[in-house]
Amino acid sequence: MEIHNHDQGLAADLEALLKMHTGRRQSLRMLFAGAAALPLMGCGGGAAGTAAAGTSANGATTTPATTTGTGGTTTSTTAGSCTAIPEETGGPYPADGTNSNGSGIVNVLTQTGVVRSDIRSSFNGSSGTAAGVPLTIKLRILNANASCGAAGNFAVYLWHCDREGRYSLYSSGVTNQNYLRGVQEADADGNVTFTTIFPGCYDGRMPHVHFEVYQSLVKAASASNRIKTSQFTFPMATLNEAYTASGYAASVSNLARISYATDNVFSDGYSLQLATMSGNATDGYVATLTLAVVA
Questions:
Q1: What kind and span of H or E run contains 240?
Q2: Is the dihedral of CA 283, 178, 138, 91 positive or negative?
Q3: pLDDT 10s digits, 53-92
Q4: What's the farthest any 2 CA atoms get from each other in the chain?
Q5: How far is the C-alpha of 44 from the C-alpha of 255, rounded, in Å?
Q6: For residues 270 and 49, is the Cβ–Cβ distance under 8 A?
Q7: How many angstroms separate the CA atoms of 100 and 84, rounded?
Q8: Which residues have CB under 8 Å from 290's CB, separation 6+?
Q9: Mean pLDDT, rounded, of the chain
Q10: How many CB atoms lie within 10 A of CB 228?
């Protein structure tokens, strides 16, 4: 299905999809069906993170964790029986309407076509596709205020840099691209899936993926509604393997100059933000993470 009313944003996407079917409930089911399960693990790249004792594969724990590092103090809020993923900076390249790229405010959340699972290509009139090792991101969202049950029908806006370490809409050479950005609504079990490429490592940061969580797809049309902003990273073994692939040469030298301990986000712990990985640099990877939010 193609929607041609460009620049009308998420609200127009919703309206157009609703008109495709005779029943409102049937239309909503059609709109919101389609997010595969994707768990990812939290802030940092190894067991040296600072998750509270008793953390399980789905983030469940019995005690809160507060850590301090070069990135500032991070408090992981405990509610119910799981620890919420730490709040982190959205960084300078969110394109969610909260900052400018030098030419003006940029906001993909209001652009037609932003609701999509495959984020490798640009959309809404832009052309261009990010090259790189295939990566499937599978997140599962839990609601810490609902006994850590599935946060069904929540939404995620996700973005990251390309193979060369550039952010679309901001970095030189890709200011006319908006690839590697997209919004997905979780299914009833809190699962959401993105198809993308493995991000590069740029100088000064460990490789990472940014995301914002919203309580619904409708609320994801405005960054003012976000209930969580965070980041996740990848195990070092995966990074070293992925960067042997073509096009990632600069990532090898950049990664050699940074570590989880010196990264300004993950230095205070990353056990809740470390993705579980499968796959390889030839066939591609699957990153899974279960994350809890307080909603």
A1: helix 236-242
A2: positive
A3: 333 334 443 333 333 333 333 444 444 579 999 999 999 9
A4: 57
A5: 14
A6: yes
A7: 30
A8: 39, 40, 41, 57, 58, 59, 139, 140, 142
A9: 81
A10: 21
Q: Which position has the token pair 């295939």?
A: 134
Count the Cβ atoms, other than its own, within 10 Å of residue 57.
10
Give 38-61 pLDDT, tens digit per residue: 333 333 333 333 333 333 334 443
- Please tell me the pTM assigned to this model: 0.76
Place of tokens 């399980």: 56
Query: Tens digits of per-residue pLDDT, 149-181?
Result: 999 999 999 999 999 999 999 999 999 999 999
- What are the tens digits of pLDDT across the range 243-280? 999 999 999 999 999 999 999 999 999 999 999 999 99
Helix (H) or strand (E) holding 254: helix 249-256
Taking a C-beta distance cutoff of 8 angstroms, is the pair 173, 111 a contact?
no
Do 155 and 220 contact (CB within 8 A), yes or no?
yes
Q: Which helix (H) or strand (E) holds 252?
A: helix 249-256
DSSP letters, 2-24, are ----TT-HHHHHHHHHHHTSS-H
- Residue 25 parent element (H or E): helix 24-32
Type of residue numbered 16: A
Please name the residue that has the structure tokens 């994801």. 220
The type of residue at 290 is T
